[in-house]
Amino acid sequence: MNPISRRQLLKALGWGAGAAAVAPTTLASLLAQAAPAGAAPPGRVLVLVQLGGGNDGLDTVVPIGGPDAGAYASARGPLARTPDRLLPLDGSFALAGELPRLKQWWDAGHLAVVHGVHHDHHDLSHFGCLAIVWAGSTDAAEQTGWVGRTLDRLGGGAAGGPDPLLAVSLDGPTPILVGRTAIGASVSPDPSRVFGSPTDTDADPAVLAAYRAMSTPVVGEPALDAAARSAQATALHVGEALGPHLPAPPAASAVDALGTQLAAVAALVTAGLPTRVYHVTHDGDFDVHANEAGRQPALLATLDGAIGGFFDLLGAAGAGVVLATYSEFGRRVAFNGSGTDHGAAAPWFVVGPAVKGGHHGQPPSLTALDDHGNLVPTTDFRSVGATLVGPWLGVDPAAVFGPGVPTLGFV
């Protein structure tokens, strides 16, 4: 037997094959849940796009009317956008000029701008704020993610355990997909790196046979050994189920990480898989403390092109898809001389044919900032999640976020 390479082992155990639920599931049960290629998606689909690093909401959705317009220009100085670099939505707000595809969605009535999204427990830390957003809770004791808790209630697999295909991350394992009984899968958007797939360039029949043998349950073995075998089997089965549907990656000279991830999501959606939630990351580093004028426009242009291209690829299948962006926080209102520092409230986008477009939530005031010079949150971040979970995915938001979290009207 050929030795297992380090790359093969890493692919099998994590990123390449998908770190999925430790649950007693079989290949037959997973494939039985996946519809034939080309079938309609089984229900509504949610796509979450993380804007890593803290997107500058005031450079994304810009106030152009009322007292906030003057406050924006004063605070931002040379960073303030001029009219030629804006796409007006109405008399009060405009999108950054690098977002023409999102402007088309606005004009069609299917882009929701949710204003002032954040929470009141922020510590201006990437890690602390992102942990809160992923958990859907300001309770430090919460060890699960809000999507994971949604998976807990979306239903189990055919064998009675959590179905790892209910949620898929195309950007590596993420805590937001970890529930109490369920956990989403993680696969690479590059099919040549998906262990167990026919497209796996490292596929070696002897290696796969050995891996399957190690994944076969043994009667009477200790519970911990059985759990490890089940995890191995699930990772392999996820690769076999998802890998064949992933498109070939673009040429190295044209690599766009977000576009590649969303192209993979589009392929999986149109394949009719049972996945209800996908997670991708635009990790171009929105942490623009320095040279924001040189960095932020390119980040926004990439976001706009990737979202536009995603819905182009979906075609008619996009009718059942809602895409939402989120970030750990916005940026501080004042220009720091080169960029902007960590802030608080910022707008999030929700887009798709089923979205009721327009302004949602109360825009925060630029003339009544908090003690750190940040916008005061006006929309509880959990309300965005509760709307995506309840009205869109059909799960009781109170079971995920607790009682009393209001939903918004964008779906």
- By DSSP (H or I, 4+ residues per run), the number of helices equals 12
Structural category is alpha/beta
Number of strands: 12
Q: Sheet bearing the most strands, described?
A: 9 strands, mixed
Percent range for β-strand residues: 5-15%
Distance between the termini: 55 Å
Q: Which of globular, elongated, flat, extended, rod-shaped describes the shape? A: globular
Query: What is the helix fraction of residues, given as a range?
Result: 25-40%
Mean pLDDT: 87
Low-confidence stretches: 1-41
Element string (H = helix, E = strand):
HHEEHEEHEHHEEHHHEHEEEEHH
Radius of gyration: 22 Å
Give the topology.
Blueprint: H1 6-13, H2 27-33, E1 45-51, E2 61-63, H3 67-76, E3 86-88, E4 93-96, H4 100-107, E5 111-118, H5 126-135, H6 146-154, E6 167-169, E7 185-186, H7 205-215, H8 223-242, H9 257-270, E8 277-282, H10 292-314, E9 321-326, E10 346-351, E11 358-360, E12 379-380, H11 381-392, H12 397-401
Parallel strand pairs: 1-8, 1-9, 5-11, 5-12, 6-7, 6-8
Antiparallel strand pairs: 2-4, 3-4, 5-10, 9-10
Summarize, please.
This protein is of the alpha/beta class and 411 residues long.
